[in-house]
Amino acid sequence: MSTTEPAVELHGITKRFPGVVANHDIDIEVAAGTVHAIVGENGAGKSTLMKILYGMQRPDEGTIKVAGVEVALHSPSDAIARGIGMVHQHFMLADNLSVLENVVLGAEKLHGIGGRARRRIREISDQYGLGVEPDRLVEQLGVGARQRVEILKVLYRGAKILILDEPTAVLVPQEVEELFGNLRELKREGLTVIFISHKLDEVLSVADTITVIRRGTTVDTVRPGDVTARQLAELMVGSELPVPELRESTVTDVPVLTMDGVTVRDATGRAVVDDVSLTIHEGEILGIAGVEGNGQAELVEAIMGMLPLDAGVIRLGDTELTGMATRRRREAGIGFIPEDRHRHGLLLESPLWENRILGHQTRPPNVKRGRRGGATGGKAGVLIDRQGFRSDTERIVRDYDVRTPNIDVTAASLSGGNQQKLIVGREMSNDPKLLIAAHPTRGVDVGAQSAIWDHLRHARAEGLAVLLISADLDELIGMSDTLRVILRGRLVGEADPATITPDQLGSLMTGAGEGSAA
Ligand SMILES: Nc1ncnc2c1ncn2[C@@H]1O[C@H](COP(=O)(O)OP(=O)(O)OP(=O)(O)O)[C@@H](O)[C@H]1O
After folding, report:
1. pLDDT for 133-164, tens place per residue?
2. 504, 518 in Cβ contact below 8 A?
3. pLDDT at res. 493
4. Are strands 61-66 and 434-438 parallel, antiparallel or unpaired?
5. Contacts with 38 (C-beta within 8 Å, 6 or more apart), sequence order
6. Which atom of ligand 1 lies closest to the CA of 419?
7. What value, to the nearest 5°, has the Cα angle with vertex 78 and ends 92 and 182?
8. What is the mean pLDDT of residues 292-315?
9. CB of 24 shorter than 6 A to ligand 1
10. Which residue, among 262, 190, 157, 267, has the nearest Cα to 35 in the 3D structure?
11. Which of 176, 312, 441, 502 is within CB 3.0–4.6 Å of 449 for a Cys-Cys bond?
C-alpha cells in the first residue's frame, strides 16, 4: 500500500434532497493503489456520494481532495480532468461501432481517431491485461468484454481513480473472477478503484478496505479479514439479520404456464427463441439460467405479448394467449417484473401512487364500481378509486420497505434498489397466477433481497407459479424448484437446484457440457 497522500478524501459531505438527507457528514479516505468498497442498504446514499465524486452532483457541504489538493467538481469533465473516471452499471457503448470508435468518441483530441489511437488502446489493454481488441464490433462482444471496454475508455481518458457502480451485477461467476483479476492488475499499476456492491462475499474477496454507509452517513470502515459477510450486513442495517425461512417443495401438478414449441425470430429471420417447450405448475418456481443475450429477454417478451410468435403456443391455464394484448395478459393473471425497470417498469417522472396504477389501471384497488355524476342518478361504471390506490401504495411502501419520504415524490427520486422494491411490491399485489420475474432483486441490498425472497416463497406456497430469470446464480439455485439452461435461444439442459454449484451452472450456461444434467 502506498504511503503517499490518499488518492481521495471526502470530508463532511452533506447532500440534501427535498424531504431527504441523502448524505450526512460523510468522511472517507481512499488510499492510493487500493480497492475500496462502499456498501450499504438501498437508499443509504452510495450512488449520491459517487455522483458527487464524479461531478454529477454538488454537495451542500463538505470538501473533496484529490491527491491532497482540494477540488471543486462541477461536472464529469472536471472529474476526468482530475483523473477520476466512472464505469456505469448500464454500459453506454454504441453496439454498431467498433471498440476503437467507442473509445475515441468524445476524446478525439487525445490521440486522434486512427493509428495513434489504436496503438494507445493496445498499449493500455496490454498494460492492464484487459484483452481489448480495437477493431472488434461492440455487438460481437459478451458482457464481460463490454465492461472491459468501458474500463479501457475511462483509462484512455487518463483516469487514475476508477469508480465502478455494481460492476458484478451483470456478470457470471467466471467473468466476476476475470474482473477481479483486472482490478488487482489496476491496483498493482498504482491505480485506485472505488466500487459499490451489494454482494458482500465479493466485496470481502477483492477489497482492501470497506466503508459502510447507513442512512446517509459513514458508520464504519473495516478490513475484509476482520469481518464476515453477515457482520458486514449487520453493520449495514444496524441490527441483527433475520434467519431465512426454511423451504420445502410446494410444486403441484396443476399447470399454470405451458409453452409448446415456441419460436420467435428476429428481423433477420434468426430464431432468438428456438422451439422452447416448458410447463410451470402451481407452487413452482422455474429458473432459467443463461448468459445474458441468449434469448431470455425475447422469451419473456413472447409470454407478455410484446413479441409475436413464429411458431408454437403459450397457454395460461386453459387459455391460449396468442393474439392477446399485453394488458389483457396482465388482467388474465400475469405479474411482470421487467428486466429494464426504467423502460418498462416505471414512469420515472410520476409520483409513486401513479406508478402503483401503471399496468393495473383497470382493476381494484385502483378502480371501483360506482355511479358517475353524483349520488343520485348518473351512470353506473368503473371509477378511479383515489383512496384505494393511495392506501395500497402506502401498504406496498410498508410491506416492501420502500425508503421514501412519502408517496407523492417521483419514482426518479428513489434510489435504484427502492425503485425495484416498488415494482416487485406492485406486481405481487394483484394476486397473480403467474409471475414473470426478470432479475427481481437486481440492485437491492441483502436485507431487501431476503425479504423479497420471503415474499416470493410465501406466494409460491399459496400457489403462485414463477418464471425466474436472474444473473445471480445463488438466487437461481436457492429459489428455483426446477432449473433450465438457455443457450442461443434453446433450452439445452436441466439442472438439479439441490445439488448444482454456481460454478457448475456457470459452465452449463456457456455451453460446456451442453445438454448434460449436473
Ligand atoms: N435526485 C434525487 N431527488 C430526490 N431524492 C433523491 C435523489 N437522488 C437520490 N435521492 C434520495 O437520496 C437517498 C440516497 O439515494 P442513493 O441513490 O444515493 O442510495 P444508494 O445507496 O445508492 O441506494 P441503492 O443501493 O438502492 O442504489 C434516497 O433516499 C433517495 O431517494
Report:
1. 999 999 888 888 999 999 999 999 999 999 99
2. yes
3. 86
4. unpaired
5. 28, 46, 49, 50, 194, 195, 196, 210, 211, 213
6. 26
7. 50
8. 94
9. no
10. 190
11. 441
Q: In whole angstroms, what is the distance from residue 145 CA to residue 298 CA?
A: 22
If you take atom 8 of ligand 1, which residue's CA is the nearest one?
413
Residue 293: DSSP 8-state: T
Lowest mean pLDDT among 66-70, 338-342, 396-400, 442-446: 338-342
Beta carbon of 365 within 6 Å of any ligand 1 atom: no
Measured in Å, residue 45 CA sits from the centre of ligand 1 at 6
CB of 455 closer than 8 Å to CB of 424: yes
Residue 367 pLDDT: 76
Confidence of residue 51 (pLDDT cuts 50, 70, 90): very high
ipTM for the predicted complex comes to 0.97
Q: Is 415 near ligand 1, meaning CB less than 6 Å away? A: yes
- With a 6 Å cutoff on the Cβ, whether 42 touches ligand 1 is yes
Tell whether ligand 1 has an atom less than 6 A from the beta carbon of residue 416: yes
> Counting Cβ atoms within 10 Å, is residue 92 exposed (0-12), middle (13-18) or buried (19+)?
exposed
For ligand 1, whether the C-beta of 446 sits within 6 Å is: no
Q: 388: CA distance to ligand 1 center in Å?
A: 27
Q: What percent of the chain has pLDDT over 70?
A: 94
Please, what are the domains in the chain?
A: 8-237 (3.40.50.300), 246-333+432-518 (3.40.50.300), 346-430 (no CATH)
Q: Atom 13 in ligand 1: which residue has the minimum CA distance?
A: 22
How many angstroms separate the CA atoms of 491 and 484, rounded? 7
Query: Is the Cβ atom of 441 under 6 angstroms away from ligand 1?
Result: no
Q: Is the CB of 64 under 6 A from ligand 1?
A: no
Render pLDDT for 7-28 as a digit per residue (tens, 0 to 9).
Answer: 999 999 999 998 889 999 999 9
Counting ligand 1 atoms within 8 A of each CB, the residue from 20, 194, 236 with the most, and so the one to mutate, is 20
The whole-number pLDDT of residue 518 equals 35
Q: Tell which residue, 299, 264, 256, has the closest CA to residue 485.
A: 299
Is the previous residue joined to 338 through a cis bond, with omega within 30 degrees of 0?
no
pLDDT-derived band at 375, boundaries 50, 70, 90: very low
Q: How far, in Å, is the centroid of ligand 1 from the Cα of 47?
A: 7
Confidence bin at 243 (pLDDT 50/70/90):
low
1 pLDDT higher than 60: no
Q: How far is the CA of 471 from the centre of ligand 1 (A)?
A: 24
Of 16, 47, 401, 441, the one to substitute when testing ligand 1's pocket (max ligand atoms within 8 A of C-beta) is 47
Residue 256: phi, psi to the nearest 5? -110, -55
Give the E-state strand segments of 110-208 in sequence order. Answer: 161-165, 192-196
Centroid of ligand 1 to alpha carbon of 6 (angstroms): 27
Stated pTM of the model: 0.76
Q: Assign 385 a pLDDT band (cuts: 50, 70, 90).
A: confident
The residues that bridge with 466 in the sheet, in sequence order, are 285, 435
